[in-house]
Design a protein that fits this description.
Elements: E1 12-15, E2 22-34, E3 41-49, E4 57-59, E5 69-71
Antiparallel strand pairs: 1-2, 1-5, 2-3, 3-4
InterPro entries: C1-like_sf
Protein name: DC1 domain-containing protein
Organism: Corchorus olitorius
């Protein structure tokens, strides 16, 4: 998966800075929504909110402290 071949798409995480679950996805084009952290358009590995109506999206690389993520459920 781009620069992150070790990541498994579809995993769901909890992030301490966001109240809803986030799915790990890959954006393969210049996605119109901007990263909540760096405010750049999203391409490659991102965490995207699963909550309907919530547009929170975050580059995987923008999560500086990966210990702030908790894997959710048996994926």
């Amino acid at each position: 998966m781009g620069r992150h071949p070790f990541l498994k798409l579809g995993l769901t995480y909890r992030f301490r800075d966001h109240p809803h679950p986030l799915n790990l996805t890959q954006k393969v084009y210049d996605y119109p929504d901007k990263c909540h952290s760096c405010e750049q358009h999203c391409v490659d590995a991102v965490l995207e909110c699963v909550e309907n109506g919530c547009d929170y999206i975050l580059h995987w690389d923008c999560v500086e402290d990966k210990s702030s993520l908790t894997l959710e459920g048996p994926n």
